[in-house]
Structure formats: C-alpha cells, structure tokens
Amino acid sequence: MELNASLDFDRRHIWHPYTSMTDPLPAYPVESASGVRIRLADGRELIDGMSSWWCAIHGYNHRELNKAARVQLERTAHVMFGGLTHEPAIELARSLIDITPDGLQHVFFSDSGSVSVEVAIKMAIQYWGAMDRPEKHRLLTIRGGYHGDTFGAMSVCDPVTGMHERFRRVLPQHIFLERPRSRVDEPLSTEDAERIETALGKHHGELAAVILEPVVQGAGGMWFYSAEYVARVAELCAELDVLLIADEIATGFGRTGRLFACEHANVEPDIMCLGKALTGGYMSLAATLTNTRVARGISADGGVLMHGPTFMANPLACAVARKSIDLLQAGPWRSRVGDFESQLQRELGAFREHAAVRDVRVFGAIGVVQTHEPVPVADLQRVFVERDVWIRPFADLIYLMPPYIMGADDLACLTSAIGAGLDTL
Ligand SMILES: *Cc1c(COP(=O)(O)O)cnc(C)c1O
C-alpha cells in the first residue's frame, strides 16, 4: 500500500496508546531502527531519547540480540509451558535469580509488565489465604504510581491520573498515601516517615502487601524519592507482617545507576516485577520473582499459583532476554549511566531558569523537565522531529531515558532539542 494510504488506514482503524478513534494524534511511520537511531519512512533519522519506553537499553537492531533470536527461531519459536519446559526459560530464570536480591528464588514468566503485577498481587493474596489470614487481601501504595493498565494493576495506579474515576464501580479499593516529598538525594523527612508508620500501624491487619516503584516513579509522574523511604517501608513491612512488592518494571536493568532500584535502599522485597528492558526491547516478556517464604506458603497443603498465560516463557523472548542480560553484565552500563547523569544534570539543569519550567530532575540515566502547564504533545513532538530527535512528552513532563549505548554528542542533541521545545511554549 502506498504510504499515505496506509497512514490513513492506520488513523481510521488502529488504536495507538490512549488515543481516540475519531481524532487521533499523528503517528510517524518508522522504516527501520538501528543503534540509537529511528529511521522514518521519509528517510529522516531521529536520535532516540525514549528507548521505546525504557526498553531498548542496547539500542535497536543489535547484532547479538538478532542472533540470539535467529538461533532460537531455528529451534523453536514457541511451545506451551504447561507440562513442557525448555533451556531458554531455565537459563533465563537462572540469570534472573543470580542478578536479583538473594532471597528471590522463584520465577513466574508472563507476557507483559501489567500481567506480572497481576501475578504479584495474586501471589500476595494467595499467600495470606494459605496462611489462614484471608482478611489480609488489601494493598497499600503511594500516589503518583503507575503499575500497568489491567484491572488489578490499575487499582494501584495513581487514583487521579490512573483512570480510577472511569472504572470506579469495578475497581477494588486499596489504600493510598501521599507520595513521599523527600527527594531522592535527601534523607527521609519526619512527615513522610510518620505518614507511612501511621498507615501501616492502622491497616496492617488487612494488608496483603505494600506495592511500590522503588525510588523512581515512572509513568505516574516521573518523581524520584528518598531511598530511605523505601528502606523504612521494608522495615515496617517486616515488623508488621505485610509483604513488600517492588515493581522494578521501569527501574530494572541499570536505569537508575544500580542494577535494581531496591539496591539504593538495600532492600530485599518479597516479590519483584520485571519487564520492559528485560528483552532489551525486542519483545514482550515479564517476570515476577518471589522468595521461598511466599512460594512455599502458596504451595502449602497442595496449593498452586493460579495463573498460566498461553505464551508463558516464550522461548524466543527468553533467549533474547538471556542474551540482553549477558550483554548488560559484560558492558560498561554503570559508568555510562553515571556519565549520562552528569551530562543531564549539566545540560537539563540549565533549563531550571526557563520561564516555562517548574522543575528539573535527574537520576541515573533519566532526565525530566517538568513545565508549569501541560504541554501540547503533538506540537512539541513536531518540533522535536524537525530537529531529528525522538522525544515523547506526556502531561507536563518532557523526559529522556536514552539507550545506554548513546554517545555524548547525541545526548547533547536531545537536551538542546528540549531547550528549543521549551522556547516554543
Ligand atoms: C510500564 C510499566 C508497567 C506495565 O508494563 P506493560 O508491559 O506496559 O504492561 C508496570 N509498572 C511499571 C513501573 C511500568 O513502568
């Protein structure tokens, strides 16, 4: 089909994320992507500032990841995981157990981050059911979070930005606290500490788990908060017999400067969700890990974990994920993330004085410019594409999370494009 005709078809028939079927925002046609560049159908090459939503940490069209997919493709693209198993799943589970906090020893594979959160919630609720404490079935979380778009995950997303009003009648009601004000580089304030202590003291008897994105809240508002808060929550959970679920779907695999954001707080969660960068952005795969206490608890008296997706542990995805983790471990991601952090501090930090800017935050390989008003997404995106960069803002947030292989010059193009974008507001 000719390009304009296929774009027209796309506009009339295909939903993109959070869009209207009658008044969609423009979508740019991609011809291919390689390294840190996305090539559009008209031949323009855009420097990728998004890693396709935290995923493409090694860049696109990576020779080794391609090879891992190809080799596995020649063996098996997929077999059911009920009653069968395979080396890609076994080797990936081994890698994940190896690189995550020590206590996490049991892996459940699923196909997307949202589903891995559903599974985490099921694990927590089934655990307390098996312990004869069925009254412990609620969750506690903080505002400004994002855990996915399925119903269980949505029920713990920020109640204002997270669609609660629209689905109020069918969503389970959980407990929300103000998000911690203490910033990532600050100690925990008394106010933040008291709020969590009071809430857990009051509700622990009905709580299955606390669920948090450790240190970095992503799509719920790109907020970075004190690691001491995470540490205090973990302490209280242990004391009061509440499980802790760490949603590391966005923060996992080095983005914050540690392999997992829990490490900033020296915390071992009972359950951890992984996704996004797990396959280096090649395909959809997620994992929920848990410790022996929870796994044995669920399995007591003949109990089974009640989940089993059709494409569970897809061999292609597992083989690529395993290779992606190997690449990460063999590569200089730690120093690169450190370099990105300094460069983003310097170059985005310069926009703090800009009239349109309310706040600039940088942590690890994540840079955020928050504006006073929500930005016109389509207009700003056009400005960025004209400057040969791919940056997709949402609400009042313009942010960068580049692939780890990016050079300093390309990163400088991204930050200067943000400056140009700010000038149009
Ligand atoms: C993206 C994200 C999810 C949902 O993952 P999907 O693969 O989009 O379902 C859950 N939690 C966090 C922290 C995320 O960033």
* E-strand count: 16
CATH topology of the largest domain, by name, is: Aspartate Aminotransferase, domain 2
- Judging from the principal axes of the Cα atoms, what is the shape? globular
* Overall average pLDDT: 97
How much helix, percentage-wise, in residues? 25-40%
β-strand percent reads 15-25%
Radius of gyration: 21 Å
Regions with little confidence, pLDDT below 50 for 5+ residues: none
Largest sheet: 7 strands, mixed
The count of helical stretches stands at 14
Order of strands, main sheet, comes to 4-12-11-10-7-5-6
- Helix/strand-derived category reads alpha/beta
- CATH homologous superfamily title of the largest domain: Type I PLP-dependent aspartate aminotransferase-like (Major domain)
End-to-end CA span: 37 Å
What hetero molecules are bound to the protein chains? Answer: pyridoxal-5'-phosphate
- The CATH class of the largest domain is Alpha Beta
Short synopsis of the structure:
The chain is of the alpha/beta class and 425 residues long. Helices cover 38% and strands 17% of the residues. The protein folds into 2 domains: 3-61 and 332-422, Aspartate Aminotransferase, domain 1, CATH 3.90.1150; 76-330, Type I PLP-dependent aspartate aminotransferase-like (Major domain) (Aspartate Aminotransferase, domain 2, 3-Layer(aba) Sandwich), CATH 3.40.640.10.
